[in-house]
């Protein structure tokens, strides 16, 4: 049976205890039942408890004419409770899934609003968790997906917290009726073309008629799966620690792992470790596309395989796998002129170059590899640049963007490569700071 409504304020406080030191609690306020109850609960608790500053945020998606009246309703509710309201109009991008596009627009606004040491509170409840579990089950989700909505996660510079996941919709309705609250009924919630509405209005009434505790037991299953996912994450961290050996090319700032360590694991542990690593870098492939990892892993030793994912690519070189995204996937344009080598030079899409020590004589300029370059080395004579790069094991993906310093038509130095990056005799050195574009997802 559902817990008595009288427990709701104390349960909410208990769930929010870890976040009491935040500077601000932003309440995502749609004006519907769930967020209205959450807002009312917090406003009344603030009268007797020392809580962070409360602010409400309403997102106007502009998808239906009925929604134009909702900001006014939300404003009146917030005024009555003494809570400031921010109304944000978002642009929902067209796409195959209107639900997903609206969610992306909404959470983009939430990220903008939530700063460091601030928390966004949303009002999803236990019934929502059950719907999420069934919805993802029907889509063939794995353990991570079936663990449902997390109670808390990072959101931009702050955090998102769902303090009502152990509360049923019936409890929220009971509270709302007890305090004679008014709320918005979104007409789109009855549109059964949307998958979640179909589950809520068609499937769950049948399930709960036969199994009255279906919502509670499914939410409990999501909690079990969440615990299982935590164990898988811990295993992944152990495996990734073993594969995170030091590379002589760590200075590139490109995430990489040792392939042989990963390949020694079982297939399931490989997928678990690699997906955990990639989850901070890109949207993950579905189950049908994980064969790309096997092809990438098993390519011939002298091959240079690439596994293309949603937000970047995995490359293989020097016995390691490397994650490339952003400007690392773009060919840098020709380097600009370098009129004063005593000053650093910003290379478009390719970091920063600087020259330390005594500047070589003559006009200097920067180029990138085109093939056929030759370099003169003390005691070794003229050597092909390609052979010199092979000797030093320079990964293929970086060779075309290594800055080359020329004096006229003579190749003087290759930036950053020991023994090729300057003149010990003349006391100068060509230093390159590769592009430091954020390699991860926001």
TrEMBL record:
What Gene3D superfamilies does the record point to?
1.20.59.20, HUPs
> What EC number is given for this enzyme?
6.3.4.19
Task: Give the main localization category.
Answer: cytoplasm
- Cell division listed as a keyword: no
Keywords of the record, alphabetical order, are: ATP-binding, Cytoplasm, Ligase, Nucleotide-binding, tRNA processing
Q: Which residues bind ATP?
A: 30-35
* Reaction catalysed by this enzyme: cytidine(34) in tRNA(Ile2) + L-lysine + ATP = lysidine(34) in tRNA(Ile2) + AMP + diphosphate + H(+)
Q: Which residues form the Lysidine-tRNA(Ile) synthetase C-terminal domain?
A: 364-432
> Domain of life of the organism in this record?
Bacteria
User: Where does this polypeptide localize?
Assistant: Cytoplasm
Q: Name one GO molecular function term.
A: tRNA(Ile)-lysidine synthase activity
| Functional note | Ligates lysine onto the cytidine present at position 34 of the AUA codon-specific tRNA(Ile) that contains the anticodon CAU, in an ATP-dependent manner. Cytidine is converted to lysidine, thus changing the amino acid specificity of the tRNA from methionine to isoleucine.
Q: What protein family is recorded? A: Belongs to the tRNA(Ile)-lysidine synthase family.
Domain note? The N-terminal region contains the highly conserved SGGXDS motif, predicted to be a P-loop motif involved in ATP binding.
Put simply, this protein is called tRNA(Ile)-lysidine synthase
Write the gene name: tilS
């Amino acid at each position: 049976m559902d817990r008595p409504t009288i427990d709701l304020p104390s349960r909410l406080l208990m769930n929010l205890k870890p976040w009491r030191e935040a500077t601000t609690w932003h309440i995502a306020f749609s004006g519907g039942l769930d967020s209205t109850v959450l807002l009312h609960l917090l406003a009344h608790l603030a009268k007797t408890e020392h809580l962070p500053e409360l602010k409400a945020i309403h997102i106007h998606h502009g998808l239906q004419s009925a929604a134009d009246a909702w900001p006014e309703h939300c404003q009146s509710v917030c005024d009555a409770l003494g809570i400031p309201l921010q109304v944000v109009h978002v642009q929902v991008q067209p796409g195959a899934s209107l639900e997903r596009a609206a969610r992306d627009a909404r959470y983009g606004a939430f990220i903008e609003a939530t700063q460091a040491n601030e928390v966004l509170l949303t009002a999803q409840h236990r019934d929502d968790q059950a719907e999420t579990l069934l919805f993802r089950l029907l889509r063939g989700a794995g353990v991570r997906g079936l663990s449902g909505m997390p109670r808390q996660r990072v959101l931009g510079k702050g955090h998102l917290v769902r303090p009502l996941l152990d509360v049923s919709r019936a409890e929220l309705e009971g509270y709302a009726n007890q305090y004679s609250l008014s709320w918005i009924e979104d007409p789109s919630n009855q549109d059964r073309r949307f998958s979640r509405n179909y589950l809520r209005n068609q499937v769950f009434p049948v399930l709960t008629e036969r199994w009255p505790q279906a919502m509670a037991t499914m939410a409990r299953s999501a909690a079990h799966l969440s615990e299982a996912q935590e164990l898988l994450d811990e295993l992944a961290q152990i495996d990734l620690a073993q594969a995170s050996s030091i590379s002589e090319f760590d200075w590139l700032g490109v995430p990489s792992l040792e392939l042989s360590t990963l390949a020694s694991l079982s297939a399931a542990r490989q997928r678990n470790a690699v997906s955990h690593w990639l989850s901070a870098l890109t949207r993950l492939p579905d189950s049908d596309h994980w064969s790309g990892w096997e092809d990438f892993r098993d390519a011939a030793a002298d091959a240079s395989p690439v596994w293309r994912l949603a937000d970047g690519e995995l490359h293989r070189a020097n016995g390691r796998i490397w994650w490339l995204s952003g400007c690392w996937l773009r060919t840098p344009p020709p380097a600009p002129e370098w009129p004063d080598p005593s000053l650093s030079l910003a290379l478009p899409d390719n970091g920063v170059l600087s020259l330390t020590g005594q500047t070589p004589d003559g006009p200097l300029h920067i180029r990138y590899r085109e093939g056929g370059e030759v370099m003169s080395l003390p005691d070794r004579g003229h050597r092909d640049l390609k052979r010199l790069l092979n000797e030093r094991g320079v990964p293929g993906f970086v060779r075309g963007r290594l800055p080359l310093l020329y004096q006229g038509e003579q190749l003087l130095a290759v930036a950053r490569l020991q023994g090729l990056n300057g003149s010990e005799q003349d006391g100068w050195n060509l230093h390159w700071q590769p592009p430091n574009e954020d390699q991860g997802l926001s």
